[in-house]
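Ticket #4471: structure export looks truncated?
Reporter: QA, pipeline team
Priority: medium

Steps to reproduce: submit the single chain below to the structure queue and open the exported record.
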Amino acid sequence: MNLNKINSALTYATQTQSLVIGSDILPKIPEIIKQLFPEKKAVIIADPNTFKAAGSEIEQILEKNNLKGSQSYIITDPDLYAEYRFVDQIRDFLKKDDLIPIAVGSGVINDLVKRASFELEREYVCVATADSMDGYSAYGASITQNGSKVTFSCPAPKALFADIEIIRKAPSLLTASGYGDLFAKVAGGADWILADAISNPDHPKIGVEPIDEIAWGIVQNGLHEALSDPEGAKNGDRKAIESLTNGLMLGGLAIQYMKSTRPGSGADHQFSHLWDNEHHTFSGNMAQKFGLYPNKDTQAPSHGFKVGINTLCVIALYEKLLETPVENLNIDSLTEQWHSLDEEINRVKEMYENSDILDFVIQQVTDKHVTKEELKDQLIRLKNSWPTTKEKLKKQLIPYQESKIRLLKVGAPTECEEIGITREKLKETFFRGQKIRSRYTILDLAYRIGLLEQWVDELFDSGYLSNKN
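Actual output as written to the record:
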């Protein structure tokens, strides 16, 4: 574990002041609480599983150090997930006393406590119990409200603890999900490289962000190392889990630093957000194999499983780009054929007819639509920088077949059907996903040079994404 990377990243964090990663570190919690929250007491928020994994021991430690403010709040609802009614319940419990909440759990518990604490203008502490996602140290919480998944603004924990001995004993499916979430930073980084290549500092455009070197360094400099031992991570190997934990925490810190998910997500997350807003669930044998909640007949795939499969899709698309002679693009012809914003909105209305997110998508495509002059400027910049950009992309990306092998080794799904997505729906997602967010990705480049449909057809007809492979 590279503590220098963590300590360096913490200097740029805007909310998290203490991040402790190591073995048998729970006894350090009282010291940090006394330091960061003088004269305050704490209360644990957990579910039955996470209370058993770590909460019970933490409660005893708090009591021994005269820091226990009340009995732990354990959410026993079998349908517990990141849904706003649980935020309301936690907030109503917390507002009774001026106690520091300690979220003991993984993605769901952390996001719920994060948002509830924010609504009470209260800081909180998190104890991670699984390497299931990068949101522990990230700004914002992804929570379902009124049937739609929304990312709400709220600060990261002031103190964060990741005990490797607890995390390495977590169910391997949780680890596989976290590995998928971290693996998505490979494709997300490639998308940021593209956006950086076409950015014009004199004429900034929504979604076309130049690379922030600090955020890039936090999330990317140790990324390949963190992903290097998927089989070890699956088996709970201490070194592999330490490396994965490091990578996930660094990814969240980069997001916290920028107050933007740009360092951690790209086109792969757009696919996932689309399925979230379509309320996708799955059942049957695959849900039993890859579901994280075995007591549920029907459930949503985990975030990490979705973005893992989607990362394979995006890498496959990048391999089509790298085969394309970008230096030979006919920029004048592409510019002349480019359509107006009204035409784009009409396409969105047809594509998202009767969808409850139509207005949202229209706003996104409006924000990122470019004029013919802006498109020409972007394509010239890409063409002029292509030799350098191409080499950066090759260095950033992990080849499709190798990526698939790594996800298989960690125990994650690699085929869309394994999370209940048909091949037809996956193909459609390339086109619908391109519209869902203003962030510039390879989907936008392919669309703007008129090759998105061709590349997708080739991938599904006889390429990586066909049923034959």
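Status: closed, not a bug. The export was complete when the record was re-opened. Leaving a note from the reviewer for reference: Residues 172-198 form the longest helix (27 residues).
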